[in-house]
């Protein structure tokens, strides 16, 4: 047998004898894209339940409330008449945020003093807290500037001039790449890439473990034929699955596809290579498929969290940063998102090289382990065959 | 037969013996893995908030007024000014290379416009696909610019012969006070660690429990004549006890090492912990009862468990989900546990503690019943084929 026969044998195993493998390779990341595409299909957080406690009940306070009613970020859960009632809404989580307008709100402002609005937000979920914080600031600021403007108009300034006086510096925000701050664009790609990694790991694991269980079968085939014949199908299928995943995310969920296809393909191919090699090493170490699965699944969560995909490497301390460098996903997930969403990734070249070197080292290790185990097993066999003769 | 008189107590003992003497990996996974996860994730979120965001300044004005604005950014711990550029191209270049993630652009004639009573604009460009950065910037930049603007507005109104305090009130008639309940510092570790801990625990249970029934089908005659509920209960109790040990250890580590507050009472924490572990153990037992072998017992449940954390409403809230996601989320035990646990820790109470605990126990019991039924049927079938074989 040469490498081509081994490759054909491997494909037959993958598709017919143990179709789990092909399911893992192609199914894992496709399922993840579908699931999480649906989960984040609303893109941004809206309709946060809000309770309003208006102690002023004037035209001015009502127009402020109007601003909150108009914002799609909020859904008014209730208007209440006492502090206790408001606290009750927050306590039972019927409302996650509250706005309290003080008595004399309107009068204080008209007499030229400033008045303050108290906003409270349940901070246990930071996604909600962050979203409320930035939108409430924006709403109050706009309202404050308009109110200030009308106050100055009384001193005989033109409306536009008056506005300039109270808000001499305005802020213009330009958010490049993910301008709607969509969670879908932010999150789904990375999750799919983590699933791709798991898919490759489990498929290659199943193949390696079954090979090691019948290690004598290929004893007469040169080592490099075995390795390349077994390695290539998974590497190629992993890459193919990667391309499918990106296409699916762009077609089904409109995730931007801005990067050049060549860069994406290069990175995907190298990642698939590295993970296939990693799985072959792992497959040589683990005794059976249960252990292999246990390890590879336990590995999945930290690999994702340390990859810098959500919590940035920039905010990690030295130890965490060092740990994050161990995981191949670190050089991949964030870069894929950069390429897809913004069209370029500053660290693309560096990451490709790093992944390639890690992969090569792992491939060499796995080859050595294969040679060792093959020799070990044939020695054992010989001993077993010799021992009856000795007797 | 001595075996047929086996008591519940004996089954529990023999299962413990199996764990400690024959397969200590189970103990390592059940207790060690959650501890390892807690350690790792505690470390990764040690920074707590995203700060020192690399910031670029493009000051086209170069006046004391613009320097004052730059100073406000320099004073904020959120921003770390890495470079000052002098042209649009340099700015785009820096953003493109990822040297800076946010650019503060001050237009020419910035100071002059302000003095002339026109309003002037500060342009902030956010250049990252990672929402962690975008959220941190959005939450702080408005405040910085508004404070600065109000200060300048105050000065210019003083020119209209208003007293300083009057002037400030006209420039910023409405001020916003935000009270962030339960997690006032926006600490990321308070937000993430309880949920990641419980997710680690559920993963550990699912990886360890695959053996519980799946391995028994290969030696089914051992269990002949013993009532099925006592077999399953007896095998389940050791897992439950050990996973509670894991739960308590994780909690203690989060509180003692990583400063997650513990405002709830211990009784409630143990209640939700025991309900959750009971439900998950029964999920594992159920899978272990239906699958053909141990490999499937460890791989199949992952379809259900791996996406669970993100669907639980723990980070992406249920109020932002569409109907499909809400439905899927309602089927996952972690939905009833993760949020409740965080509420207990951070807020000291959870409005849904009792309903969620009850639901988890009911869910677990239903699965217990189903597993018993399945085990009973398969035992009957296996024993039948055994007898036929003997005949």
Task: Give structural notes.
The complex is a heterodimer of chains A (391) and B (391). Chain A is of the alpha/beta class and 391 residues long. Chain A has two domains: 225 residues; 132 residues, 3-Layer(aba) Sandwich (abc type-2 transporter like fold). Helices cover 67% and strands 9% of the residues of chain A. In chain A, helix 2 packs antiparallel against helix 8 and helix 8 packs across helix 13. By secondary structure, chain B is an alpha/beta fold. The mean pLDDT of chain B is 87. Chain B has two domains: 129 residues, abc type-2 transporter like fold; 203 residues, no CATH class. The longest helix of chain B has 38 residues. In chain B, strands 2-1-3-4 form a four-stranded mixed sheet, with helices on both faces. The two termini of chain B are 21 Å apart. Chain B is elongated, with a radius of gyration of 30 Å. The interface between A and B is large, with 114 and 114 residues.
Question: What characteristics describe this protein?
Answer:
heterodimer, A: about 400 residues, alpha/beta, abc type-2 transporter like fold, 4-stranded mixed sheet, B: about 400 residues, 2 domains, 5 strands, about 65% helix, elongated
What's the topology here?
The complex is a heterodimer of chains A (about 400) and B (about 400).
Chain A: H1 3-17, H2 20-39, E1 48-54, H3 59-70, E2 74-80, H4 83-91, E3 97-101, H5 105-110, E4 115-122, H6 126-153, H7 159-166, E5 169-175, H8 183-213, H9 223-253, H10 261-285, H11 289-306, H12 318-324, H13 333-342, H14 348-390
Parallel strand pairs in A: 1-2, 1-3
Antiparallel strand pairs in A: 3-4
Helix pairs in contact in A: 1-9, 2-8, 2-9, 6-7, 8-9, 8-10, 8-11, 8-13, 9-10, 10-14
Chain B: H1 8-22, H2 25-44, E1 53-59, H3 64-75, E2 79-85, H4 88-97, E3 102-106, H5 110-115, E4 120-126, H6 131-158, H7 164-171, E5 174-181, H8 188-208, H9 211-214, H10 228-258, H11 266-290, H12 294-299, H13 302-305, H14 308-311, H15 323-330, H16 333-347, H17 353-390
Helix pairs in contact in B: 1-10, 2-8, 2-10, 6-7, 8-10, 8-11, 8-16, 10-11, 11-16, 11-17, 16-17
């Amino acid at each position: 047998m040469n490498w081509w026969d081994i490759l054909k044998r491997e494909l037959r195993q993958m598709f017919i004898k143990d179709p789990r493998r092909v399911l893992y390779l192609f199914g894992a990341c496709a399922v993840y894209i579908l699931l999480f595409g649906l989960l984040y299909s609303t893109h941004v957080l809206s309709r946060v339940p809000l309770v309003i406690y208006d102690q002023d009940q004037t035209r001015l306070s009502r127009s402020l409330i109007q601003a909150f009613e108009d914002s799609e970020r909020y859904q008014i859960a209730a208007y209440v008449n006492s502090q206790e009632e408001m606290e009750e809404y927050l306590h039972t989580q019927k409302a996650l945020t509250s706005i309290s307008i003080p008595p004399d709100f309107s009068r204080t402002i008209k007499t030229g003093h400033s008045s303050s609005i108290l906003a409270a937000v349940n901070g246990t979920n930071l996604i909600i807290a962050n979203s409320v914080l930035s939108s409430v600031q924006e709403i109050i600021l706009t309202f404050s500037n308009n109110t200030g403007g009308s106050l100055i108009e009384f001193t005989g300034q033109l409306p536009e001039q008056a506005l300039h006086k109270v808000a001499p510096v305005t802020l213009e925000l330009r958010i490049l790449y993910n301008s709607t701050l969509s969670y879908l664009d932010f999150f789904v790609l990375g999750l799919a890439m983590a699933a791709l990694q798991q898919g490759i790991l489990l498929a290659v694991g199943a193949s390696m473990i079954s090979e090691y269980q019948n290690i004598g079968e290929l004893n007469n085939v040169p080592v490099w034929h075995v390795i390349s014949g077994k390695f290539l199908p998974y590497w190629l299928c992993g890459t193919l699955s990667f391309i499918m995943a990106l296409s699916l995310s762009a077609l089904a969920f409109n995730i931007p596809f801005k990067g050049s296809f060549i860069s994406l393909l290069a990175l995907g191919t190298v990642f698939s290579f590295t993970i296939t090699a990693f799985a072959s090493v792992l497959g040589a170490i683990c005794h059976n498929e249960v252990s292999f699965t246990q390890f590879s699944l336990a590995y999945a969560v930290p690999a994702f969290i340390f990859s810098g995909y959500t919590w940035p490497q920039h905010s990690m301390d030295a130890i965490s940063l060092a740990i994050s460098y161990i995981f191949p996903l670190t050089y991949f997930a964030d870069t894929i998102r950069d390429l897809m969403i913004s069209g370029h990734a500053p660290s693309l070249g560096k990451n490709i090289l790093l992944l390639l070197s890690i992969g090569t080292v792992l491939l060499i290790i796995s080859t050595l382990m294969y040679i060792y185990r093959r020799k070990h097993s044939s020695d054992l066999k010989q001993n077993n065959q010799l021992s009856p003769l000795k007797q | 037969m001595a075996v047929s008189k086996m008591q519940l107590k004996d089954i529990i003992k023999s299962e413990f013996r199996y764990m400690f003497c024959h397969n200590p990996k189970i103990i390592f996974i059940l207790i060690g893995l959650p501890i390892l996860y807690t350690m790792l994730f505690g470390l990764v979120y040690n920074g707590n908030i995203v700060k020192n965001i690399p910031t670029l300044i493009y000051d086209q004005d170069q006046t004391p007024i613009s320097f004052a604005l730059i100073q406000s950014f320099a004073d904020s711990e959120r921003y770390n000014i890495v470079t000052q550029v002098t042209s649009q191209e340099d700015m785009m270049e820096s953003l493109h290379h990822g040297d800076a993630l946010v650019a503060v652009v001050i237009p020419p004639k910035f100071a002059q416009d302000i003095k002339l009573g026109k309003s002037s604009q500060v342009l902030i460009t956010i250049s990252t696909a990672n929402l962690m950065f975008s959220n941190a910037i959005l939450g702080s930049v408005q405040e910085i610019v508004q404070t600065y603007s109000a200060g300048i507005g105050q000065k210019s109104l003083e020119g209209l012969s208003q007293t300083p305090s009057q002037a400030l009130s006209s420039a910023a008639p409405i001020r916003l006070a935000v009270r962030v309940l339960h997690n006032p510092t926006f600490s990321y570790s308070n937000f993430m660690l309880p949920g990641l801990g419980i997710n680690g625990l559920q993963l550990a249970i699912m990886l360890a429990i695959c053996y519980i029934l799946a391995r028994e089908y290969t030696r089914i005659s051992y269990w002949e004549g013993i009532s099925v509920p006592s077999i399953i209960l007896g095998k389940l109790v050791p897992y439950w006890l050990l996973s509670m040990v894991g739960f308590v250890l994780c909690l203690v580590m989060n509180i003692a090492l990583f400063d997650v507050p513990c405002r709830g009472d211990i009784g409630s924490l143990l209640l939700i912990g025991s309900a959750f572990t009971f439900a998950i153990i029964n999920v594992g037992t159920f899978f272990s009862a239906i699958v053909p072998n141990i490999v499937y017992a460890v791989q199949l449940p992952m379809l259900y468990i791996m996406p669970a954390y993100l669907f639980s409403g723990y980070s992406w809230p249920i109020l932002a989900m569409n109907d499909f996601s809400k439905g899927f989320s309602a089927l996952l035990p972690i939905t009833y546990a993760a949020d409740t646990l965080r509420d207990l820790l951070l807020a000291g109470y959870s409005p849904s503690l009792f309903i969620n605990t009850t639901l988890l126990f009911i869910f677990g019991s239903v699965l217990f019943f189903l597993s018993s039924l399945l085990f009973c049927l398969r035992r009957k079938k296996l024993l039948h084929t055994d007898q036929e074989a003997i005949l």
